[in-house]
Amino acid sequence: MYSIAGLSDTSETSVTTGLTLLPSLRSAYIPFPLLYGAAMDGSCLVWESKCETRGNCWLYDLDKLRYSYFGTSITFLSLAVVFATGVAFVASDIRDFYDDGYQEVYSSEDPKIRYKKRDPVRIFEEHDQGRFKV
């Protein structure tokens, strides 16, 4: 969120922040209350009824409520563990995340550090073979 807000003008910061939060709101904050509500409504035994409309639940099947509530929580936590494990496996392939393609070159005549642009094809081949060296 901060990187996107830092790239935009100061007048567009609120719009950028809103657009950044939109995917998390759509994927997390909206479906989960609906899913937990459905799990709780599924364990209701006695519903209030007024004028042919269903009202609040008066009596829950506690065993069914317990299993549906904690089962939903365990399902979401298991999915989180699966995705976190996947990210850990993918992130283990990153060798040098901050490589900018330059290599330090020392000279015995000139003690200053100079930088030489590296060949991008060679960098890709070293990453591909798993023996990346700066």
From TrEMBL:
Gene Ontology terms, cellular component aspect? membrane
User: According to its UniProt record, what is one Pfam family this protein matches?
Assistant: OATP
GO BP annotation list = transmembrane transport
Keywords, A to Z, come to: Membrane, Transmembrane, Transmembrane helix
Top-level taxonomic group: Eukaryota
Question: What stretches pass through the bilayer?
Answer: 67-91
Q: Which InterPro entries match?
A: OATP
Q: What is this protein called?
A: Organic anion transporter, putative
Q: Does the keyword Manganese apply?
A: no
